[in-house]
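ok trying again, last paste got cut off:
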Amino acid sequence: MHEKIAQYCIQNLNLDDAELSEEYFYASLPFCIIDAVYSLGVRYSSTRNTVIHFCDIKGLQRLRLKESPFLDISQQYSVHQFDDLLSHYDDYKQIAVELFNNKQRTSSRNGILKAEAVHKFARVLLKYNVNYFQDISKVIYDLNFENDICLIPGQTYGTALTYFFMLAGDDNKVKPDRMIYSFLVTTQVFFFQQEKNFAINLRGYILHISS
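nice, full thing came through this time. structure:
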């Protein structure tokens, strides 16, 4: 199935001009957390504005140069610093308004503020000693870490976690959102199946077939 999907991509997509968008080159890991959590179920423009607002209000460098390696840890805003900042606030409504300018919830029914989900995500990372991009290898295949993230309200299916890993440099995952599912259905070789950890490396198959 994977090879058929890859072949479809080669025939129907302009892969020569394909490039990663700017969010794949964040300067610091906390911005990946904000992006991954806030991106679920909304137009991406609101998510981008959320990250921009946070970086602007805190005077932080949002992006590194495109296609450049991770910044040295001395130049990154750490997850620990991010947690310290959020912990100084009295409630998450204040964080949502002042730091993120975004009061979205993880769900319209009994969901928590995404600002709270962001903080919970950051604290799970700290539990596994992840502070910088360079630490991601500690958790990328850790099922205990994954399970802890999925216990956060709104993170049950691991969609944000998969996207977080992508933003943090993992080339071997695909965010299982509606647009991806819709595209796969158009290939006529993919039949929808809800999976907790849906992730296929189309890029690898495309390169294999093209070589």
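cool. The chain has one domain: 2-210. DSSP finds ten helices and no strands in the chain.
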